[in-house]
Design a protein that fits this description.
The structure holds two protein chains of two kinds. Chain A has a domain of 159 residues: Rossmann fold, CATH 3.40.50. Chain A has eight helices and ten strands. Chain A has a six-stranded mixed beta sheet, sandwiched between helices. Chain A has a four-stranded antiparallel beta sheet with strand order 2-1-4-5, with helices on one face. The longest helix of chain B has 38 residues. By secondary structure, chain B is mainly α. The N and C termini of chain B lie far apart (59 Å). In chain B, helix 11 runs antiparallel to helix 12. Classes of the chains: A alpha/beta, B mainly alpha.
Chain lengths: 241, 293
């Protein structure tokens, strides 16, 4: 008997989470919760601080497996490359999954290397060797995040010299360079001023046409502006609002 | 009351710093006062032509050139053995070892760090005897065995600093590469190690200093008072710390004692040079690593 999953748009489910439980350091954060997320939409995940919203995102790209003292049970299925996959199945490659399910963190996290190398890094990790392809894709992605004109003359400069808003847009370009199918965002605009936050919101609205977006956000007005669906995480349960 | 305690603590901290600084000044000042007058080409090359000595055409009998060459070779060889072993062990402990394995290895490396250098020297000497009896009668105490024994002495410094430098990286740095689809090895090589290199070089700095100054280990494994510049890694050699020890315990006149002080200044200078080199590398490492890619 399959678990009853609250549907959002039943016809085009991209991510299906079933009976998910998660504990960190013995503390139960998610308790036997099920939810489905639709394709090509922005779903905002809201809830009180410390309720486990960021942790929930990490169960969708298996990043929690890098943290100590965590346990998880349940099932997460995704429609990747047109095929439904259980991402916790033994034959599901972790690296391949994370290349299809990209993540942007709360604080901009540029690596201590040049702007160009930061953006090209996921391509190089994925084994792309052709320099012309790398250069073309970096330019395309930086244009996409509206950062190209600001950095085209200093691509070899350190990414750490960019402003906070520029760094976060660069991190978003880095996340998008592999053209992922799902983008997980953990409060990406929380450390930015209003103008930088608006730039990121505009990007997300454009990207949802070729990507499924899940965004953790504390700002209800931001949620109202961009989210197609809202899921609330409270007392270990995910509920559609 | 709280303010008074705070002031006492601040005063105590200042005093501690001042005492440390004055001890350093006193030691270097005393060395310079006693030995500076001997510093010159004659101290290093004696009566030999410097160019002939440097090109190894003529042996230096009455200068410190062979001891300087011996010390430099010894440091380079020991660090050369210890860096790959120590970094690999440090990486294993920080990134791959389980909790129990880590505890056991931590204890073992702490024990190794606490071993007196004379014990390591005895180990080197026993190793030499063993090799002489069971491998080749040609093997005697030499530069190679000294460097291996010294490598054991400095291994704990390199292991610990590598481990701590990696473990102290913030969690978000650790997750950045992995979230992009990096394998654990890619994350280690491209993200973690470049960021930890500065800390790792600190361990190598400490190790260099320890190698350059140690006398107990080399006394039992190959250093002699007069051997010239080592012709091969299997020959005896001279070293500055042993020369200082030898002169200070057996000097015949004040002139000889003064050359001992001169040798001490040279040893400090060599250490300073190696430290400076490591500092420059430490400052530029992350940029160099990334610009090569």
């Amino acid at each position: 008997m399959p678990p009853s999953i609250p549907p959002i748009i039943q016809s085009s489910v991209k991510i299906r989470v079933s009976n998910l439980s998660f504990s960190y350091n013995g503390r139960e954060i998610l308790r036997d919760t099920s939810v489905a997320f639709p394709e090509h939409a922005i779903t905002a995940i809201v809830g009180p601080s410390g309720s486990g919203k960021s942790t929930f995102l990490m169960t969708l790209n298996r990043l929690w497996e890098e943290l100590p003292r965590c346990t998880m049970s349940g099932r997460v299925e995704m429609l990747l490359n047109g095929v439904h996959q259980n991402i916790y199945a033994p034959d599901c490659g972790m690296e391949a999954l994370r290349r299809r399910v990209a993540m942007v963190f709360q604080m901009p996290n540029p690596l201590p290397m040049s702007i160009f190398k930061n953006v090209a890094f996921p391509l190089q990790l994925a084994g792309e060797k052709d320099k012309r392809t790398i250069r073309r894709r970096v330019e395309e992605t930086l244009r996409d995040v509206r950062l190209w004109d600001e950095v085209k003359d200093r691509l070899a400069g350190s990414a750490l010299s960019l402003s906070g808003g520029q760094q976060q847009r660069m991190c978003m370009a880095r996340a998008m360079i592999l053209r992922p199918e799902i983008l997980l965002l953990d409060e990406p605009a929380s450390s930015l001023d209003q103008k930088a936050a608006e730039a990121i919101e505009q990007l997300l609205v454009r990207w949802k046409h070729h990507c499924t977006i899940l965004i953790v956000s504390h700002y209800l007005d931001q949620v109202k502006r961009i989210a197609d669906n809202v899921v609330e995480l409270r007392d270990g349960q995910l509920r559609i609002r | 009351m709280g303010r008074l305690v705070e002031r006492i603590i601040v005063l105590f901290s200042w005093l501690s710093g001042a005492i440390l600084l004055s001890v350093i000044c006193a030691v270097t000042g005393y060395l310079c006062f006693k030995g500076l007058k001997t510093i010159g080409p004659a101290l290093i090359f004696g009566s030999t032509d410097p160019m002939s000595a440097l090109l190894l055409r003529q042996r230096v009998f009455d200068g410190l050139f062979p001891a300087m060459a011996g010390t430099l070779l010894l440091v380079l060889m020991s660090v050369g053995w210890a860096i790959p072993l120590g970094t690999a062990a440090g990486i294993y402990l920080a990134e791959y070892a389980g909790v129990k394995t880590k505890k056991i290895f931590d204890l073992l490396f702490d024990l190794l760090a606490g071993l007196p250098s004379i014990v390591i020297g005895l180990f080197g000497f026993s190793l030499t005897l063993f090799l002489n009896r069971h491998v080749s009668k040609e093997l005697h105490p030499c530069l190679l065995l000294s460097s291996i024994a010294l490598a054991f002495l400095i291994l704990p410094y390199i292991i610990r600093t590598t481990q701590i430098a990696l473990e102290n990286l913030p969690m978000h740095n650790r997750l950045t590469g992995l979230a992009m689809g990096a394998t654990r090895m890619q994350n280690l090589v491209h993200v973690l190690l470049p960021q930890a290199l500065a800390g790792m070089v600190s361990g190598i700095l400490l190790a260099i200093g320890r190698c350059a100054e140690d006398t107990a280990v080399i006394m039992l494994t190959g250093v002699v008072a007069s051997a010239g510049v080592p012709r091969s890694v299997l020959s005896h050699y001279e070293a500055l710390p042993f020369y200082i020890f030898y002169i200070s315990s057996q000097y015949a006149n004040q002139q000889e004692l003064a050359t001992g002080y001169g040798a001490a200044i040279l040893l400090l200078f060599i250490c300073l040079l190696l430290f400076g080199l490591a500092f420059v590398i430490k400052k530029n490492l992350p940029c160099q690593v990334f610009s090569q890619r």
